[in-house]
Structures are given as C-alpha cells and as structure tokens.
Design brief:
Elements (H helix, E strand, L loop, with lengths): L1 H21 L4 E15 L3 E4 L4 E5 L16 E5 L4 E11 L2 E10 L12 E10 L3 E9 L25 E12 L2 E9 L11 H5 L3 E9 L4 E12 L15 E15 L2 E11 L9 E4 L16 E3 L1 E14 L2 E14 L8 E2 L2 E2 L2 E3 L4 E14 L4 E18 L5 E4 L3 E13 L1
Antiparallel strand pairs: 1-4, 1-5, 1-25, 2-3, 5-6, 6-7, 7-8, 8-9, 9-10, 10-11, 11-12, 12-13, 13-14, 14-17, 15-16, 15-21, 17-18, 18-22, 19-20, 22-23, 23-24, 23-25
C-alpha cells in the first residue's frame, strides 16, 4: 500500500512538473473603448439598436395626397457599441501556446435589451507551430478579419459585409508561408437564420465552412470561403405525424486586398448564396407551392426552397494628410428570388409558410466617403456621409421577382464618431 502511494505521489509530481515546465509567465490584459456616435437621416429607414445599425431606406409610403410619409428626418445618438475585453496569454500546454479572449459590448442580444452586456467573443485558442485549434464563440468565417471596411458607421460595412458570431470549433493549418486552410463547424447563437430558432439544432448538423487564404495582408491578400448549412423547421405536423424534411443551403465568398503604396489601399469582398439571412443579408426560405402536387394536404410534410441573393462591397483607403485619413466605401446587395414557385399564403400580414427578410426589396446600395482625425492611436474623431438607394417592388411573382416597382428612393445619413481606446 505504501509502495503504491509513493508511486502515485511520484507520478503526480512528474505530471505537475511537466505542466509547469510548459507554462510561461501568464499575462493579463484589459482593453476596450468608449465610442460615442451621432447620426442624422432624412428618410425613414430600416434601422435597429437606437438607429446606429443602418440597413436601407424603407419602401415609399404614400398618403391620399401623394405625399411620402417616410420622407422625414431623424437624429439619434448612442454609446452602446462601446466595448470591454479581457485577454489571458502566456500559458503553454500540450506544446501549444494558449490564449483566451472575452469581449462584450452594450448592444444587447435584441432590441429590447439594448444597454445590456452582449457577448461578442468568448474563446480559447491553442496555437502550435503550423496549426491552431479554437473553441468558443467568435466570428463566422465569412467575416474576414484581414479584409474589413474601415467605415465610421457601425458594423464595418454591414449589411453588405456580414455580421455573425457563433459558437464553433475552428481549425487552422498553415499550408505554406503564404497559404492557410481554415475549417469550422459552428452552431448559431445570437445570429440565427430566419425561421424557427431550433431549426439548425433539429437538423443535427453544424454550419460547415472551409476557407483558403493566400498572400500577405500587408501586401496582396485574398481567398475563398465555402459554406453549407442544414435546417429542419418542423419535427411534426398538426396531426403529430413526424416530419423528416430538411432544407440545405450553400454560399460562396471571395475576398481580396492590396496595399498599393503611397497610402493607397483597396479591399473587395463578395458573396453569393441561398438564405443568407443568418449573415444579415437579404434571404430566407419557405414552402414550395403545392398547387400541382399530388400532396395537397397542408398539414403534412412539404418541400422548401431558398431565396438566393448576392452582396458585394469595395473599400478604398486614400493617402493621409498629417493626422487625417480618408476613404470611401461602396456596397450593393440584390435579391435574386427562388428557383421554385412559392406558397405566398399570408395571414395577419405575415407569410404563413415562409420566413423572409423584406422579400419585396429588389436591391439596395450605399456609397460612403469618410474623414477620420487621429489625434493619437487612442483618440479619434470621424465624419462619414452615406448616400443609400433602395428599389422596392409593389408586388412580386411566385418566385419573389418584381412584377411592379416603386420609384427608387434614397436616404442621406451624416454620422459622427468620437472614440477613446484604453
């Protein structure tokens, strides 16, 4: 018995020594920023979170005199995008350098909770010489950190550039000095696809992504992202018959950046896919019309189809002048409709068998020049002017393609930012 205790003690000491030998000096870093924003619009638009998240101008809304009720001014301000972060690094286990990171802002998880802490990132990353493995919540791979617009407006080009952070396992492998492969399997958290919240969980498959990155972000850089997700909106019908039907969707994303010298830089990003609603992009899915189907019982299982769309943006950095930096952003997003004829039955203003994000919106665009004054790396002031256009359909066919159009409308937004980082 004593011999066993001695052996176990020696084993424990050996393991402890091995772990300690891999540990470096642990470092802790608090960070974040205070961000004040104020913004003025001259046309009512789709917005959220104290209006600082801007989407696009709403469709014209005419009264009997022919006046557009949406042609009205709006002024607002917010500090909800201010952030706090905490990093722990310096630990080495399993021959990997481990870093953990937590970041939160005050935008809340929904409109009703604005002002409350909202977890943006919470993960730990294990990094080896030529690979890394991440567990936790962080950005969806379509949010390419190396290719991000430098806009003053919230969301770095959102909704042309996607906004999605989710729980995931992410693996990165260095294929060569200037080539990386990134694989991710993620479950939706705060940024779900439209439709039942448990549709992905019920399908039993994470959002699968593969990404290739090439080049040096400081010079020339680009890549491709491929993604597939599966949803199961229903598990049983009204008569408690089991439902087996799922709906899959894919998307393809490309990105590029180049630093051209003398202060010039260019960044481009684009995506095409089905039901991109989880990225904040026009999309959705619904029931295929069963008029010509042998199965006309709406209570039973039925097929779905996705709305397709694309989104793209271009961001240009211009030469700086002393402490001033300049740039211009341009974005375009378009609804491409469905392949199949869709069931457009409506009740109380909503589609009975579909989940769509503004399906009557045909396209919208934005162009935004900006000026930023960098007093130091910690204190900046900026102004950005955005001209947004939107084309809405008065009516659409059974594939959500426009039959009759409203005139193109627009909004002028002027936005100011004062930001102090710590």
């Amino acid at each position: 018995m004593k011999k066993a205790i001695v052996i176990l003690s020696m084993l424990f000491i050996s393991v402890s020594s091995f772990v300690k030998a891999q540990e470096n000096k642990v470092s802790y870093k608090f960070g974040g920023f205070i961000e004040f924003k104020s913004y003025f619009d001259d046309y009512r638009s789709r917005v959220s979170r104290y209006d600082h998240i801007y989407f696009y101008p709403l469709a014209p809304k005419l009264n009997t005199a022919g006046e557009d009720l949406n042609s009205t001014n709006s002024l607002n301000a917010s500090v909800a995008t201010s952030r706090l972060s905490f990093t722990v690094s310096g630990i080495k286990l399993l021959n990997a350098d481990i870093t953990s990171y937590i970041e939160a802002d005050f935008t809340g998880s929904a409109e009703a909770y604005i002002g409350m802490l909202n977890i943006r990132h919470a993960y730990f990353n294990m990094k080896w010489e030529k690979s890394s493995l991440l567990f936790g919540q962080t950005s969806h791979l379509t949010m390419v950190n190396e290719v991000t617009p430098s806009t003053v407006a919230f969301g770095a080009g959102y909704p042309f550039n996607p906004l999605n952070r989710n729980m995931q396992v992410q693996y990165t492998a260095s294929l060569s000095k200037n080539a990386k492969l990134v694989l991710a399997a993620s479950m939706f958290s705060g940024h779900n696809s439209l439709g039942p919240a448990k549709a992905q969980a019920q399908a039993g498959l994470p959002n699968l992504q593969a990404q290739l990155k090439f080049g040096d972000p400081a010079k020339v850089f680009g890549g491709l992202t491929f993604s597939y997700k599966l949803l199961k909106p229903r598990t049983a019908d009204a008569q408690n018959n089991l439902i087996s039907t799922t709906i899959g969707s894919y998307d393809i994303n490309a990105f590029f950046r180049a630093n051209l010298g003398k202060g010039f830089g260019i960044k481009w990003w684009g995506i095409y896919g089905e039901n991109l609603s989880h990225l904040g992009i026009i999309g959705g899915y619904g029931r295929v019309d069963n008029t010509f189907s042998s199965n006309s019982n709406e209570l039973l299982d039925y097929k779905y189809d996705n709305i397709k769309s694309y989104s793209t943006w271009l961001d240009i950095d211009l030469p700086s002048a002393k402490n001033f930096s300049f740039g211009i952003f341009a974005g375009l997003q378009k609804n491409l409709g469905t392949d199949a004829l869709m069931d457009k039955t409506m009740a109380s203003g909503d589609y009975t068998y579909g989940y769509y994000k503004d399906p009557n919106l045909v396209w919208f665009s934005r162009i935004s020049p900006r000026i930023v004054y960098n007093l130091s790396k910690k204190l900046i002031f900026g102004v950005e002017y955005s001209l947004s256009h939107a084309q809405w359909a008065k009516s659409t066919d059974m594939k959500f393609r426009a039959d009759e159009l409203h005139p193109v409308n627009h909004n002028n937004r002027l936005e100011f930012i004062a930001k102090y980082s710590f």
